[in-house]
Amino acid sequence: MQNKGLIKFFAILFALVSIYQLSFTFVASKVKNDAKSFANGDSEKEVKYLDSIGKEKVFNLGFTNFTFNEVSDKQINKGLDLEGGINVILQISVKDILKGLSNNSKNPVFNKSLADATANKKGNQTYLDAFFDAFDANSNGTVKLASPDIFANRSLQGEGGVDFQMTDAQVKKIISRKVDESVESAFGVLRKRIDKFGVTQPNIQKLGNSGQILVELPGAKDVDRIKKLLQSTAQLEFWETYKIEEIGNFIMAANESLKKTEIKTTEVKPVVKDSLSALLADAKDTAVAKKGNNPLLDKIIAQGGGPVLGLFSPKDTAVINGYFKRADIRILLAGDQRYAKFVWGITSTIKDEKGKAVDAVELYALRGNRDNIPAMSGGVVTDAKDTFDQLGKPAVSMQMDGQGAKSWEELTGRAYTQKSNIAIVLDDVVYSAPGVSSGPISGGRSEISGAFDVTQTKDLANVLRAGKLPAAADIVQSEVVGPSLGQEAIDNGTNSAILGLFIVSLWMMIYYGKAGWFANIALAVNLLFLFGILASIGAVLTLPGIAGIVLTMGTAVDANIIIYERAKEELRAGRTLEEAIKTSYSWRGAMSSITDANVTHILTGAVLFIFGSGPIKGFATTLLIGIITSLFTSIFIARIFIDWNINRKNDLTFVTKFSKNIFTNFHFNFLGMKKWTYLISICIVIISFTSLAINGLDEGTDFVGGRTFQIRFEKPIETETVKAELEKVFDGSAEVKVFGSDNQLKITTKYKVQEPGIQADEEVNKLLFENLKQHYSAGLTYDKFVNAYDGKKVGILQASKVGPTVAEDIKTNAYWAVLGAMAIVFLYLMISYRKWQYSLGAIAAVAHDVIFVLGIYSLCYKFMPFGMEIDQHFIAAILTVIGYSMNDTVIVFDRVREYLAGKTKGTFAEIVNQSINTTMSRTINTSLTMIVVLLIMFVFGGESIRGFIFAMLIGIIVGTYSSLFIATPILVDTISKEDKEKVEITHKEA
Fold it and tell me: Where does the sequence pass through the membrane (predicted)?
């Protein structure tokens, strides 16, 4: 080996750098454990402790010191599946941005294009591109984007803006830039909010130019609070309100009109005695007061007063909103009331007639106008602080600028004179609607009070200070993981990694003896380098990432196996140990096979990295780094010890008594079996396609959208019971499966997954709690059921949501990833082997493997005791199978190419058969180490990745079969008769 000293120098330097980088992870972990001990389960106390020592020196290397914040920045970060917390993807509404840029244009072509873009957006297409396509189709050249009533409006004119003379292509560039600026503005606002929220090491990043923003909050536990914080647009407005006596006649008339379409004769409900029902009591038609005869009024659960029209149950708000949007109801509003805007207040808890605590929400009617503009906008607010009102209750005080102070004085003066109320509205929710009893308020200071707690006022002040979002931000994908579940994942991953390392190391020693020890040392160094690189690049370690590390231990010895097997062959051919080592490490020896196998593997890993997201990207990261470090340690580190052994004149045989005669003089007619293997594989493909057509696949929420909950109970529970209970409240959409132990369920539903905003999320959580709490002992509250906390054992341990548009993007990415990986590998092999027949054989084998795995999943998902969903994890498994199947195939093909170009005697089929037989030890050993580590991961890796590992396990097994019985026979059958005769003539002459 040339430059041995230089390699040793770099290896030692790399090892020292890796240890240095990993030291930060150990120090950070120790400090965090101290914080947990100090907080004793209080997450807020834990965060405050870590914040307080952020600038303190916690790591002294003698020549330099590091603060806790610096140490945290350099550690290996754990993903949410290991740390716990919440991960969301927010979709900034490009539709709202375009409306704003057009000044809410009424142009029919423009608005139809907005609607068409929403309906027809293709997977992986941005909304803006979909809008441009729709506008081109709808306008057909008759309407320009630079029209005065679209984008050539006053607000977009001027330098860098839109003028009337511009073409659509020019306007598109400007609008694209303006949209990017708005998303950037949203990104900045969200970062300000998150920085003040109080979690350690939050992560926020834009996802390409899709208008999507990824937010990760490790360790965050209050789910509903976080979603409110992220989704609030902070659109603060001040509206004048109607009083109940002013709007009461409309409510009466609406109730009468609704009776014609909504009343059910079997419905019997008591009429609540509130101010509205009192109005009704004076009506001439006393029949209206009969129980169950009031579609609108029967839904009132408590009386209102002043600006509050009544209190309703949150579950009825959607129905009532639908009533007020109906044209036949709106027409009942007289005069200026026709512009009235009906909005809800914040949810509070009240006592019903039986004294039971129930949720209630207040209904308000705001004094609207033709342009739907509030009396005052919240843009005048310059500062906001959480404080306490005169009664000592939590509130938020606001300070306005000069213009705002003047407008506020006018507005409060008018309210004082008219004895009316001013509603303080944030994102179409009324937080308070105070009256003005002491005259106009000067100075621009105001206060928001209501049924708040201290946490709510802190968040509200935070949102107002950070500023408003330029458009609505909807959570299109989310995942919530409890810290206890994360600890279980760490334990499972650690156990499987240790056991996998032990088994692989033991096998290498049993099979290769002393040389196996050298491979094991290289494996240990490989793991050090791998973790060192992960720490240095700031990678996030996820559970699939741990699986990638365990797989790396299987692949790390592959190169050693190929080299050792070649060395054994050279020794059997009578060469000296030095000659055998030199040959096996040469391009003519093992290097060509190692290069081709790993390049194909790297290509599929790169595709996985590009198209994957979240944990899957973490898997791809560890896999790619592991391939590179494995190559370095297998080729150079193990070689250093081998050369050291040779220099000491020690014997090295690469075999033990156990393995000495295994696969020696192995002769099997692989090509003679091709008729049977073709028949078997054709039957498998037919069965797979038949099952796919009849049974389909169990597509996960990643591909079809939906909500998934992992819920643990105190004792075993029947899935059918839970399914029947939830189907009643989720409109028939509830799939319930046992997940791991029989007291843990995986519940999937599409109920309201398309509805934006946090209200739908909260409704689903509350419906889950209300319908499942009967299966728990008394004392389980909604907060304990939904939110995460240290030591949580029951309730929702993990929850995820994937919106339908994101699901379509993921599915599109998955198709392109698989097809792209196969195309790239086909091209590489064709270039490397210079014959398309090699590529065809390899791709046919890979396609066979993919179809086989899909067929198994289609046939078995209904009765297997673990999840077999087709999701991002499954696609990662398929791409990994493609890589490893190629690995096996390349080992065989490389020997075939060598023998066909060499002097081996025999017919074409005999030469190819001999090629396959001489690679059996390599093929079986490389596959066996992979199968062993996958089995370990399958048994000990945890329920959440069992289906993912199973796909790889089946794929590796069938991939080994296809390399021997599909790829090579196809290669032989597609080579022309003339080429075969040329080879046979050459070998006879040799």
Answer: 493-510, 517-540, 585-611, 623-642, 676-694, 814-831, 838-859, 874-893, 924-942, 948-972
**Strand 741-749 relative to strand 735-739: parallel, antiparallel, unpaired?**
antiparallel
Residue 353, pLDDT score: 73
Amino acid identity for residue 776 in this structure: Y
Nearest to residue 547, comparing CAs of 79, 72, 23, 25?
Answer: 79
Predicted model pTM: 0.69
pLDDT of residue 41: 67
Six-digit token string for 404: 């705002």
Structure tokens that stand for 905 in this block: 């005697």
Q: How far apart are CA 83 and CA 28, in angstroms?
A: 14
Distance CA 104, CA 9 (A): 67
Which residue type occupies 762? E
With contact defined as beta carbons under 8 Å apart, do 480 and 798 qualify?
yes
pLDDT in tens, 368-401: 888 788 888 877 888 888 888 777 888 888 888 8
What's the token pair of residue 109?
Answer: 């072509």
| Contacts of the segment 150-157: beta carbons below 8 A, 24+ positions apart | 150/102, 150/105, 150/107, 150/110, 151/101, 151/102, 151/175, 153/102, 153/103, 153/105, 154/103, 155/101, 155/103, 156/101
Show Cβ contacts of residue 990 under 8 Å, excluding neighbours closer than 6 positions: 903, 905
C-alpha span between 762 and 700 (Å, rounded): 22
**With contact defined as beta carbons under 8 Å apart, do 893 and 838 qualify?**
yes
First to last CA, the chain: 33
CA angle 699, 613, 611 (to 5 degrees): 85
* Cβ density class 614-639: b for 16+ within 10 Å, e for less: bbbbbbbbbbbbbbebbbbbbbbbbb
CB distance 496 to 941 below 8 Å: yes
Q: Facing residues of 25 across strands?
A: none
The identity of residue 109, as a single letter, is: V
